[in-house]
Amino acid sequence: MQTQKKHKRKKKRLGSYPYSNVLFSITAALFMIGMFSLLSFYAKELSEKMRNNIEIRVFLNKDLSSTEVADLQQQLEEKEYIDQKNGVPRVHFLSKDEAAREMIRDSGEDFISFLGDNPLRDAYIVYLEEQYFETDQMQSVVVNLEQLPGVFEVVYTKSLVEEINNNIRNIGTVIGVFVCILLLTVFILIDNAIKLALFSQRFLIRSMQLVGATSIFIKMPFLKRAAFQGALSGFLASCLLGSMLWLAFERIPELQELTNLTIIGAIFTALILLGALIGFSSAFRAVSRYLTMKLDDLY
To answer: Which CATH number is 70's domain given?
Structure first.
């Protein structure tokens, strides 16, 4: 009996194409976008945290009674521009004795013994809401505070505020430019990866067209697969970024104070949706191109 060798041939199925290479390419591209988004987010959060911790010192007249001091605190706490933490206005009283102790501790010199008196004034330390840190608004707040009864002077580090505001604006500009460049680069990378993958199925696409299959019937398997690959790549990129964040939290615990889980979740969700959208768009254009090409151009 003659033994016949059976050769199993793997048939090409409509919509199938090399999986791992495309998945890796899309994941790497989306990972870059996610990485840049996280870096931009933390840079902006750090700048805003620095701005929110800028002190404004409201120095008081020396002849105020305890009742007048308490009334002034109440007026400060009712101002709409005063920042709140857990629902409590960030207004803190600093007596002139406490201020003197701080100055002596920082300078190492007992100026009270030298002068024979404490020349400092009682003050309230206040913090502003984020939207009031622009130069014009900050100046309006200072003028408003100085008009309160019992206020001698309002002092803040103007140069520091201007520097932080400039840094935030520069960060916003850099983010905008890099996002545009990065999105374009990533779109081209993913688009080319899917086009190369679909190149192996160009004849199968034409064969289906010749036997009467409609364009939507031919496109649908490719569109579903590409969209799924894009979404899966976005999920994998999000997992990698999440692992990276976890390691960063282990090494830098203070980083958790800047973390907004809602924003992080939005970035990860955007990566999944972006991957699916670019995959769908690239597959749609690639299949449409092969459907309209002349037969000779397919070779």
So the answer is: 3.30.70.3040
By the 8 A CB rule, do 58 and 146 touch?
A: no
Q: Looking at the domain assignment, is residue 131 inside a domain?
A: yes
CA dihedral 68, 74, 80, 83 (to 10 degrees): 110
pLDDT in tens, 113-128: 666 666 778 889 999 8
pLDDT digits (tens, 9 = 90+) for 46-90: 877 887 788 899 999 888 888 888 899 899 988 888 888 888 888
* Structural domain boundaries, residue 93: 55-156
152 occurs within a structural domain = yes
Judge whether 89 and 77 are in contact, CB under 8 Å: yes
Angle between helix 20-52 and 261-292 (nearest 10)? 150
Question: Which residues make Cβ contacts (< 8 Å) with residue 178, sequence separation at least 6?
Answer: 36, 40
